[in-house]
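Side project, low priority. Logging it here so it doesn't get lost.
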Amino acid sequence: MNNDSTIHVGLDVHKESIVTAYSIGLGEVQSLGNIGVLQRDIDRLCTRMQSKGSHVSFVYEAGLCGCGLYRHLTKKGFACMVWIFRPWEASIPGHGKPVTTAG
């Protein structure tokens, strides 16, 4: 494994759990399954992903549960792309607000 690789981490965020998967570069996607929603669970995931490569990037869709996660990940210095879903705009084509940062 090349430790200079970018690790892409996808999250499916829910109130009670977070389902995670990752890929190294453009390689095969590996499922990590469910993790908890506590800060220590997120920190454990971050440490695990940092051990696989030097650059870690997170992406997920955020409802009400995802905004605190975004703040936590970016505060730790990670790149994070979030799609903020607004139910009242769901029927309007092209709506939804992507939010990105470079870590």
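Brief comment: The helical segments are 39-50, 67-75.
Revisit when time allows.
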